[in-house]
């Protein structure tokens, strides 16, 4: 198994399937009266969160605790970072305290990669800037596989703010590894410059893509990262790229609707679509804990220097 | 510093993205067939002996538990699971009433996790009735150090509170490292610690046999599961 999880591209097909299969076994244990495994007893997992997060931080914390690891939560607010401490100095502090794994979310793309060079423990990327969010891609793949039974040959359409989305990049890379066909749909202004080099198709017309889609994944419009006008009005964006009830009717009967959260109801996804039976949004959160348990187990569960 | 595990021995070169998988795809819960016999191995139990040993164990379970009313057979992956199913079929045959059987994965409870790279999980499948108040018979292929059984007892404790826990094994090869003994033994097989005991079952390996082999380095690797 790999030592750090920084990019979805780090995962080979076999690694990714091992994580999904392990998460599948762990998900089965979730209804036990006592769901606490002794596997990571005595290991310390630090959640290092420089950006706001609800589900990812709670999900990693729940995962580590169910594996009996000690969890230290760190958020930039109310810490020495507010006094101007650099990432490196924070990392060295954690190192001195003996962290076996550091789960990092940071506003700067590449921060987890830098961190991996400074600490001895495993580094797990929980979202870095507009770069990657590999555990989200893994839980999305897990959700697709458990709902639709396969990933190979699955047609996945990812819609919306691809430019600012770390979820989109990680999903494209992972789903390509796992044999799914990905199409990105977005206004031209919300596609990254180098999107032509990504292993996926690109389209500007959502209505044309929906009838041939097994999975549609709506991305949040990340207003907090937008420092320019990427589309005329929210209303116009919602008209052309939002998923409402009539658009959902274009999907094949078996197709599912995903959203990594947090949602802007009424912008990229209509409230009735988000709450429909096709929506896997709550399921994705539950699967997130199983996936993160699998990742922590596979990174930390074995020997450090492998025999 | 990033690459602590050299890729050649099961680690993975992160930057290059060239992956050597820690375990083959689909290995979770699925036993890898043992295709060839141990080098220099000799068969100590054949198909007929295994069949008779399981039939005798089934009758012993019925006697010891007064008809196996509330018995659940839980096999420890990989080959304990098949043995548990075979024993359950025999119990059902003799008492003409189904005997529940399942599997109990103990990977997350092992005490040697830190000694080897993280391994794939086996499948846990406990009958719907649960284990509370039941007599659980743990089933494994080889009893050796007793550490697997210790882990299984911990795993069982997280599933509920059985009335009693018993242990059935096809082969007891001795060399216990913990105060654990089996209630039902197919065959006591005196071994040296350098030897390797390998159990082959039709469902996984295409044939039934118990093989005792010399503990050469590769033989030890091939038979590590049976040896543990």
Name given to the CATH homologous superfamily of the largest domain in chain A? Aspartate/ornithine carbamoyltransferase
The SSE string of chain B, one letter per element, is EHEHEEHEEEHEHH
What is the radius of gyration of chain A? 19 Å
CATH topology grouping of the largest domain in chain A:
Rossmann fold
User: So, CATH architecture of the domain at 48-190 in chain B?
Assistant: 3-Layer(aba) Sandwich
Quick one: biggest sheet of chain B?
5 strands, parallel
β-sheet strand percentage of chain B = 15-25%
Radius of gyration of chain B from the CA trace? Answer: 18 Å
Q: What's the mean pLDDT score of chain A?
A: 93
Question: What's the CATH topology label of the domain at 48-190 in chain B?
Answer: Rossmann fold
Please report the distance between the alpha carbons of the first and last residues of chain A.
12 Å
Low confidence ranges of chain A: none
Largest interface, with counts of residues having CB < 8 Å to the other chain, equals: A-B, 44 and 41 residues
Q: What order do the strands of the largest sheet of chain B run in, or round the barrel if closed?
A: 3-2-4-5-6
Count of alpha/pi helices of chain B: 6
Shape of chain B: globular
User: According to CATH, what is the class of the domain at 48-190 in chain B?
Assistant: Alpha Beta
Helix amount of chain A = 25-40%
Mean pLDDT of chain B: 82
Keywords:
heterodimer; A: 307 residues; alpha/beta; Rossmann fold; 2 domains; 5-stranded parallel beta sheet; 4-stranded parallel beta sheet; 9 strands; 15% strand; B: 228 residues; 3-stranded antiparallel beta sheet; 6 helices; 27% helix; disordered N terminus
Give an overview of the whole structure:
Chain A is of the alpha/beta class and about 300 residues long. Chain A folds into two domains: about 10-135 and about 285-300, Aspartate/ornithine carbamoyltransferase (Rossmann fold); about 135-280, Aspartate/ornithine carbamoyltransferase (Rossmann fold, 3-Layer(aba) Sandwich), CATH 3.40.50. In chain A, about 35% of the residues lie in helices and about 15% in strands. Chain A has eleven helices and nine strands. Chain A has helices at about 15-30, 55-65, 85-95, 110-115, 135-150, 165-175, 205-210, 235-240, 245-250, 270-275, 280-300, and strands at about 45-50, 70-75, 100-105, 120-130, 155-160, 180-185, 200-205, 215-220, 255-260. Chain A has a five-stranded parallel β-sheet with strand order 7-6-5-8-9, covered by helices on one side. Chain A has a four-stranded parallel β-sheet with strand order 2-1-3-4. In chain A, α6 (about 165-175) links the parallel β5 (about 155-160) and β6. In chain A, α1 (about 15-30) crosses α5. The model of chain A has no long low-confidence stretch (mean pLDDT about 95). Residues about 1-30 of chain B have low confidence and may be disordered. In chain B, the strands form two sheets. A five-stranded parallel β-sheet of chain B has the order 3-2-4-5-6, with helices on both faces. A three-stranded antiparallel β-sheet of chain B has the order 1-8-7. Chain B has six helices and eight strands. The longest helix of chain B has 18 residues, at about 45-65. In chain B, α2 (about 80-95) links the parallel β2 and β3. Chain B has a domain at about 50-190: Rossmann fold. In chain B, α1 crosses α2 (about 80-95). The relative contact order of chain B is 0.18. With about 230 residues, chain B is α/β, with parallel strands linked by helices. Chains A and B meet through α1 and α11 of A and α3 of B.
